[in-house]
Amino acid sequence: MMFTHRYFHHRVPTLSFTKKLPSSSTPVDEIVHDEDQEQLEAEEVEPRRIDLPPVCKPLGYWWIFKRKMKADGFIDKYKAMLVIKGFRQKEGVDYFDTYSPVTRITSIRLVLAIATLRNLEVHQMDVKTAFLNGDLEEEIYMEQPEGFSAPGQEGKVCKLVKSLYGLKQAPKQWHQKFDQVMLNNGFKIIECDMCV
Q1: Can you give the pLDDT at residue 7?
Q2: Nearest in space to 82 (alpha carbons), one of 129, 49, 119
Q3: How far is CA 17 from the centre of its chain?
């Protein structure tokens, strides 16, 4: 199978936040306001900028830039995602538990079989920015992202309240949040599969 170059080269080179994207007059800071940023703004999650406690070390971050392509191979939009350097987290300090269950294929087959027998409609959904919804239990500090430091607070760090992509506990925190919402709406978890 042969691929044309327009489908093959989707990566945007690593950039500084203040640089412009290649072959684009759009500054990177305008691209950052995508779904993830809108989600954080909708929930009014303003990072808490504080002085770093004496024995703590802030985690770094990366900006990941991508191009979203249309079906015809042309660029639809540019996306930017802030990812924390979770590989620098220390177990017992920055996180304690990372377990997040995954549903069994037999459970999915059982749900589909019951739906078929009872002539029910099955709906599938995707929660956009799912990992950004988890509430953190641990105290996590992050360097202020380039371009987002408040005037006069450049030397401070961000104390995270919600999960970010890259945190080791992000899947667990999202699962707990999702379970809580489902249970509050009258659903029950079956004993043989924690995801159903």
Answers
A1: 41
A2: 129
A3: 19
pLDDT of residue 49: 86
Instruction: Give bridge partners of residue 162 from the DSSP assignment.
Output: 135
Q: What amino acid is encoded at 171 in this protein?
A: P
Which stretches within the chain are classed as H helix? Answer: 5-8, 28-31, 35-42, 105-117, 170-184
The pTM of this model reads 0.71
**The two structure tokens encoding residue 82:** 């802030």
- Alpha-carbon distances, residue 180 vs 45, 175, 177, 184, 186 (angstroms): 20, 9, 5, 6, 10
Percentages helix, strand, coil for the chain (3-state, rounded to 5) are 25, 20, 55
The domain ranges of the chain are 8-184
Which two three-digit tokens encode residue 156? 């401070």
Q: Could you give phi then psi for residue 76, rounded to 5 degrees?
A: -85, -55
Q: How far, in Å, are 27, 47, 161, 169 from residue 136 at the CA level?
A: 32, 13, 6, 8
Residues 6+ apart with CB under 8 A from 163: 131, 132, 133, 134, 135, 136, 169, 170, 173, 174
Reported as a single tens digit per residue, the pLDDT across 96-142 is 989 888 899 999 999 999 999 999 999 988 888 888 889 999 999 99
Main-chain dihedrals φ then ψ at residue 166, nearest 5 degrees: 105, -20
